[in-house]
RNA sequence: GGGCGGAUAGCUCAGUUGGAAGAGCGCUGCCCUUACAAGGCAGAGGUCACAGGUUCGAUCCCUGUUCCGCCUACCA
């Protein structure tokens, strides 16, 4: 029979798309609640529907695919559920940018047409990332692809919102929230990124109303907010100021006076001047202080964070100043106010000051605390069980280090602001009766807005919502039938928080839900631990009564080779698709897996991927080698009857199976990869294939049939072992070599087999390797070309080892390219011989021709020096009474043995040195 | 401010019941030896951040210091 031949180098492109479509067509990735086996399920962290695959996705998805393919091969009933996220603000921003380029805006389109437009954009770009995921080889059940805005998932969102509202866990209230003046929406606390900046600390004098010659000096980083001050606070126990409590100060630049209050929470006596201005409408601390002292709130910025003329007038700001700064941004207004204060000698000093500012995580605009009515989830009652679930181990977080992080955040969690003033998303199911709430619908046109900009619309605090699954027909209070729906939509994370059960059909009780919930593992990055993971746990426990997943595996962030965060603006992004095109998908996947060490970010450089491309090629060529020599009979023999190389490689393979499986169970993708790499390259290719060449190349060799069988068996098993990591090349090779079954995807994963263990063969191999390496070293020292056949002697101090050398004779000769002569050193020639020694093993290379022995002598001398040092160290330890008295006996024995061995080696080395010097004539 | 993680070969990183320092890449030398030059063979290279402590013995355990990351926080 003739065996198929492979190309000389592996060409990933020729292989990848072909196999992926085959796998899809045959439905290998399709899950069913009726499949046999213990369920194993993963829901994918849904990427942004209009995004494209970046290297962070590639890591996240590769790890999930490894787990899923591994479990599928183990016979589990696997489901990997894919999907995408509507990413409210981000997607809306993208479409708005497109509109802007066309000279339009979302306001000019109107809500309905705008949303249509976003759906269109989703239709055109939504498949991009899905196709890229397929290129990466992801074995998702694509028939179950979900999208957070799907009808079913939207129904789940509605259901959850209404039930939470009915349970009193959702409320609407006017609060100070984080507001992005560019996106024009509220953000939750965690959507704000903090950044340290060098700011200034301004000290401003506020004269006392009763005695303007005395002034309280307050310190602030935002002088412009003084216009909205409604009090000054001092510490009630501060002797410098507490006598002023109850008096009033004139608020400079306004016609107002404001009270001096005592507040021990807000005021830190050590900081600044010890007196604090209170601006309840523009600062979170001040808001709370305002609550404590029943202070009015005077906002002075509008929703675009511009100074607002009406508001300035309401705040009693001097008219001249008001007209001067109205409509300005904060950064433009600040110097003007600073100048006026300076002119009036109220600006006491300005110092440099380190501070943090918050930025919108989507657009990086500085966020403003902004007073507005919003929807909130009362979170404590939901957080409590979610803390429990992690504490009692129903959910494992891996690596464990993040547990405290999670618990700390959960214990100190704040109510979740879920309303967003955007259009793309799940609109809040709340309606307001127009009769009962008349006067509570406010419109506002931004200052300086273009004519196309429509009014900014708000439903004021105090309006009474009717929350329902569908629009109400009659008002339960007045019977009216005209309603206005709340214009806000929900935070995208509200819908992704339901992902593990909404995607399985909830609120219907589907077979899928029964079978695959709770899911087995969640694989995600640290950056969305709070955004997403925590919310899923809370909502899963609330609505399913059980955790959404058992294990949470948190992987690292992928950075560039310098450790910088990848970003488009820095231009240091590694495009996974480009890399896959250049080096092959398997190479990228294996690279990412091999670098996924817990608790450490991945610094990715292209050279690494290139290295694993080479690894793929190595595997490819091992397969080529096997195919080349496969002609001829093959015999399945009991392990004990196989040749030494066969017993050895089977033992090593078995060990590798054990290690890879155990490491995967521990989510140590890095160690699993390195075990595979080490085995395939440095044991299978470097040694095994070399060892068996004589048996394969001689058609009459007695070991031939058994060896060919072992060669195929081990290669086939190795391909299955490697398949979850490198799905494409393993399938291609597996299909080419003798195999049973239609695809490697659905073959059983190798299981460890104790019968394969051959400690005797492994021990023998260690001696073989040591001997061959020593001979090769001698070869290099003597400058013998690799091809030259050389005669050499071998011997060992240990008689049983010496006997093994005898048995290994032909392997030694073959691997060292020469003829091995096992013989006692007493019969070795006393001249023209280079003797090398290590750990009782001696080899002697015949010196012939005109060779420079200097290199050899240098090596011997250096080895002697090193060993001297080691002997000294061991002697020191063994001479130490305390060591001998307290160290365990086996350690002492080990030290003594090593010392004896070193002494023996030294004797031989000394004689070898003498011989060399004699030959050199020195 | 608080918390967490890291500091090991030129680079990127492994290394748990404390008992002779590892890998990959890079580097040097020799080889196109019919599986593979995307390769083979042989090498060089480390007081395991610093200072103490515990111990017969510390890269590993404890304390402190320095540097670098990340998370978190209302010091105006």
- Low-confidence stretches at least 5 residues in length (pLDDT < 50)? 447-453
* Overall morphology: elongated
Biggest sheet, open or closed, and with what strands and sense?
Answer: 4 strands, antiparallel
The share of residues in extended strands comes to: 15-25%
Mean pLDDT: 91
Number of helices: 29
Alpha-carbon Rg, integer: 38 Å
Structural class: alpha/beta
Spatial strand order of the main sheet: 6-5-14-16
Distance between the termini: 63 Å
Helix content: 40-55%
How many beta-strand runs? Answer: 31
Blueprint (SSEs and pairs):
Elements: H1 12-25, E1 39-43, H2 55-73, E2 77-81, E3 83-84, H3 88-101, H4 106-109, H5 111-135, E4 146-147, H6 151-166, E5 170-180, E6 185-187, E7 192-207, E8 215-220, E9 231-234, E10 248-250, E11 257-262, E12 275-278, H7 284-293, H8 309-314, H9 319-325, H10 330-343, E13 347-360, E14 368-377, H11 380-391, E15 396-398, H12 402-411, E16 416-417, E17 419-420, E18 430-433, E19 441-444, E20 456-459, E21 465-467, E22 483-485, E23 489-490, H13 492-496, H14 499-502, H15 511-516, E24 519-525, H16 529-544, E25 549-555, E26 558-559, H17 576-583, H18 585-595, E27 602-603, H19 606-628, H20 644-665, H21 669-697, H22 704-722, H23 727-736, H24 759-781, E28 790-796, H25 799-807, H26 809-816, E29 818-822, E30 833-838, E31 841-846, H27 854-879, H28 881-886, H29 889-920
Parallel strand pairs: 1-2, 3-4, 9-11, 15-25, 24-25, 26-27, 28-29
Antiparallel strand pairs: 5-6, 5-14, 7-8, 7-13, 9-12, 10-11, 14-16, 17-23, 18-21, 18-22, 19-20, 28-31, 30-31
Helix pairs in contact: 1-23, 2-18, 11-12, 11-16, 17-18, 18-19, 18-21, 19-21, 20-21, 20-22, 20-24, 21-22, 22-23, 24-26, 27-29
The protein binds one RNA strand of 76 nucleotides through strand 8, strand 12, helix 7, strand 13 and helix 12.
């Amino acid at each position: 029979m003739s065996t198929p031949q492979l190309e000389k180098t592996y060409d990933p492109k020729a292989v990848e798309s072909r196999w992926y479509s085959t796998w899809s067509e045959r439905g290998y990735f399709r899950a069913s609640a009726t499949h046999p086996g213990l369920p194993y399920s993963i829901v994918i962290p849904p990427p942004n529907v209009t995004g494209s695959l970046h290297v962070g996705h590639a890591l996240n998805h590769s790890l999930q695919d490894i787990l899923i393919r591994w479990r599928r091969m183990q016979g589990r009933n696997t489901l990997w559920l894919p999907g995408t996220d509507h990413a409210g603000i981000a997607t809306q921003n993208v479409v708005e940018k497109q509109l802007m380029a066309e000279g339009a805006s979302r306001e000019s389109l109107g809500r309905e047409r705008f949303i249509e437009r976003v759906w269109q954009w989703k239709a055109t770009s939504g498949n991009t990332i899905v196709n890229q995921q397929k290129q990466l080889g992801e074995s998702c059940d694509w028939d179950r692809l979900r999208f957070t805005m799907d009808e079913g998932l939207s129904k789940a969102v509605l259901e959850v919102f209404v039930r939470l509202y009915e349970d009193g866990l959702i409320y609407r209230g006017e609060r100070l929230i984080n507001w992005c003046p560019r996106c024009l929406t509220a953000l939750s606390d965690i959507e704000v990124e903090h950044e340290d900046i060098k700011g200034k600390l301004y000290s401003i004098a506020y004269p006392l109303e009763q005695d303007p010659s005395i002034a309280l000096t307050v310190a602030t980083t935002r002088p412009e907010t003084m216009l909205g001050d409604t009090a000054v606070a001092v510490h009630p126990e501060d002797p410098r100021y507490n006598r002023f409590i109850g008096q009033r100060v004139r608020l400079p630049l306004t016609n107002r006076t404001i009270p001096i209050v005592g507040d021990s929470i807000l005021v830190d006596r050590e900081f600044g001047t010890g007196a604090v201005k209170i601006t309840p409408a523009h600062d979170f601390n001040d808001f709370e202080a305002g609550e404590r002292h029943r202070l009015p709130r005077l906002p002075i910025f509008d929703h675009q964070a511009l100074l607002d003329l009406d508001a300035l007038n309401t705040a009693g700001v001097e008219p001249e100043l008001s007209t001067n700064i109205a409509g300005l941004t904060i950064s433009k207004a600040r110097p003007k106010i600073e100048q006026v204060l300076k002119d009036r000698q109220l600006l006491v000093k300005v110092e440099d000051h380190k501070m943090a500012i918050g930025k919108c995580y989507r657009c990086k605009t500085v966020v403003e605390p902004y007073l507005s009515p919003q929807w909130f989830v009362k979170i404590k009652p939901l957080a409590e069980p979610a803390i429990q679930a992690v504490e009692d181990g129903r959910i494992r977080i891996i690596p464990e280090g993040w547990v405290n992080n999670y618990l700390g955040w959960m214990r100190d969690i704040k109510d979740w602001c879920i309303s967003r003033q955007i259009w793309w998303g799940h609109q809040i199911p709340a309606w307001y009766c127009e009769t009962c709430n008349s006067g509570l619908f406010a419109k506002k046109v931004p200052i300086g807005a273009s004519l196309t900009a429509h009014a900014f619309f708000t439903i004021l605090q105090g309006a009474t919502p009717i929350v329902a699954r569908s629009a109400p027909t009659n008002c339960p209070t007045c019977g009216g039938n005209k309603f206005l729906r709340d214009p806000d939509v929900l935070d995208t994370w509200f819908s992704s928080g339901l992902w593990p059960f909404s995607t399985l059909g909830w609120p219907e009780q589907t077979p899928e839900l029964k079978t695959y919930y709770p899911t087995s593992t969640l694989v995600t990055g640290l950056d969305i631990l709070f955004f997403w993971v925590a919310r899923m746990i809370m909502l899963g426990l609330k609505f399913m009564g059980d955790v959404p997943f058992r294990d949470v595996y948190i992987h690292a962030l992928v950075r560039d080779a310098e450790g910088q965060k990848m970003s488009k603006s820095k231009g240091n992004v590694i495009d996974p698709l480009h890399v896959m095109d250049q080096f092959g998908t398997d190479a990228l996947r294996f690279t990412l897996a091999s670098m996924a060490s817990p608790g450490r970010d991945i610094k990715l450089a292209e050279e690494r991927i290139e290295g694993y491309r080479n690894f793929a090629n190595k595997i490819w060529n091992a397969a080529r080698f096997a195919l080349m020599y496969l002609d001829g009979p093959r015999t399945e023999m009991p392990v004990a009857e196989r040749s030494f190389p066969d017993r050895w490689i089977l033992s090593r393979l078995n060990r590798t199976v054990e290690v890879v499986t155990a490491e995967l169970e521990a989510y140590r993708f890095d160690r699993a990869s390195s075990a595979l790499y080490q085995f395939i390259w440095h044991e299978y290719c470097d040694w095994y294939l070399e060892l068996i060449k004589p048996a394969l190349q001689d058609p009459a060799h007695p070991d031939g049939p058994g060896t060919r069988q072992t060669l195929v068996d081990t290669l086939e098993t190795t391909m299955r072992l490697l398949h979850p990591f490198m799905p494409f090349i393993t399938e291609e090779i597996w299909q080419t070599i003798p195999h049973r079954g239609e695809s490697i995807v659905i073959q059983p994963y190798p299981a460890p087999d104790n019968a394969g263990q051959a400690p005797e063969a492994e021990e023998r191999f260690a001696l073989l390797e040591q001997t061959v390496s020593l001979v090769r070293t001698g070869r290099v020292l003597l400058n013998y070309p690799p091809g030259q056949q050389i005669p050499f002697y071998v011997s060992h101090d240990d008689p049983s080892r010496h006997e093994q050398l005898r048995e290994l004779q032909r392997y030694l000769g073959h691997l060292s390219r020469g003829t091995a002569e096992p013989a006692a050193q007493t019969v070795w020639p006393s001249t023209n011989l280079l003797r090398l020694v290590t750990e009782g093993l001696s080899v002697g290379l015949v010196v012939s021709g005109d060779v420079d022995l200097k290199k050899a002598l240098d090596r011997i001398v250096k080895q002697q020096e090193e060993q001297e040092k080691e002997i000294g160290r061991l002697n020191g330890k063994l001479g130490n009474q305390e060591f001998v008295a307290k160290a365990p006996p086996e350690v002492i024995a080990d030290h003594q043995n090593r010392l004896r061995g070193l002494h023996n080696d030294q004797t031989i080395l000394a004689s070898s040195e003498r011989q060399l010097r004699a030959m050199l004539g020195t």
